[in-house]
Amino acid sequence: MSHLTRRRSWLVRAGTLTAVVAVTAGSGAQLALAAPLPTAAEIIREPKPGLTGYHGVKPGDLEKILAGIKRPEGDAGNHIADWKGFYIAETVNHAAGYAIKGKRAGGIVKVTLPVDITIATVNIKKNPGELTDDFKARQVKRIKDEFGIPADAPMMDSLAKDRIVLKLPEESEFGGFEYVVPWKLAERGTATKEREFAPRNEGVDEAYALSNAAPAVAAEGCAPPTARAKRSASRCADLDWETVRDEAKKTVGEVVQDTEHLASLPERTLQGLSKAEAHTVAVRTQAKLGTMSGVRTAAEAAGVAAWAYGMGVAFTDQRATTLDKVAATTAIVPGVGNALGIADGIEHHDPEAVAANAVALAALVAAQAVPVVGELVDTALLAEQIVDVVIDIYQRTAATPRPATPLPSGALPLLPPAKPSLDCSVLALDMDIVWDTTVSVPDKTQLVIKERGGKEFTYPASAGKAPGWLIAKGIGQDRTFDVFYRVTNDQGKTLESSRRAVVKQTVKDAGFYCTATVSQESW
């Protein structure tokens, strides 16, 4: 259940933050972008007396880093061993994007590294037609060869010995560079507070505005509004999705042929999996994918499992319609950036690989969770089909919506669960219901707002807002609505989604304070 007072502007922005990084060299140096590099010079070394820049800090971590820069447990800056390091930005604006996590923002620190270092500017280009994995492997090999690092040694950790800091061109619309500092060097630096963002939504708004992300960039982002990427989210918009699709299906095919792995999973049944079993499948499959590719997704097993379980339940419920089944599938939308970690995991050098693994994970877990019924018997075929479903829904929902298409004969619309919010006007004690229209929906689909113990209101789902104010009850009284989709197919059958949003509004304190809460219930 979430607490809403007003429909926040950042909630309806379709996109993610793009943070681009570089720094000033030396504590007193003036900020300046480096001149273009000769194309033949793939790596250029330059000694510097130190480094100064900015670092975006996630909520809850500001005091920790002010107490001292320390290598954290876990990913330590990146999911790949070769790229684990401390990342610094050139400006406060670009660092702001890194400070956001979900519906909160942390702060920004100014980082000073007062030791002599060598900056190695890397300008290795991707060849036409070169696969992302091949390019990343070639890039790492070239850097390791340059500095005499053994192939099996972690690259950034090995660069610490000679005080090497990598300078990489940022692949985004902002241009510039990012600096990757080995942890042993970073721990010798100091951090001072540059800015601390306000709590909750206000802080996210501040960080978003400070990042100077242009509207066009936001509209092209590939993560939902509340799931912003750690670094260079624009890469998410530029993903080669056909490569992601092909790689995900290839991965799915390899996993379903691994009899030892399949034997370790809870068996598919006519009833589907329990929540605990779905979680087991997610954890073991995530580990399997990491072993196969060397790329560990940023996915949260619990989130993936919850989605897959909900999808399985929809297929076992005899009362469920195709509309409900699709709604369960599209419930992955708000979790793609969080549960799957696609946007959050696209950091530094492996976007297609991360996205393909995330999509494959979702498809494999869902295929195992869906009960063995009718056309859903073949796990391999089902998983491959779900790859297409996840990618299609992800692109439709996260990017600019495509125009609504006519409803084919006998078909049902692809609709997510209703996501309404309630705006309160504290002066007139009026309120209005608005809902999410980030997906394309056929015009014939209706959104139903039904007051408990009161009237029913219906509106075209594509409208996105109830036309006209609904009068609130007296001060201190609640008003509760069920919000759901209704559609009549070409055969005349009326269907309603069983997954319903419950909106509750209360006016308090002589009308100067109103609240709205939204929850979900299954009917």
UniProtKB/TrEMBL annotation:
It comes from the Bacteria. One of its GO terms (cellular component) is extracellular space. Residues 52-201 form the Diphtheria toxin catalytic domain. One of its GO terms (molecular function) is toxin activity. Keywords: Signal. The keyword Transcription does not apply. This is Diphtheria toxin catalytic domain-containing protein. It comes from Streptomyces sp. NBC_00060.
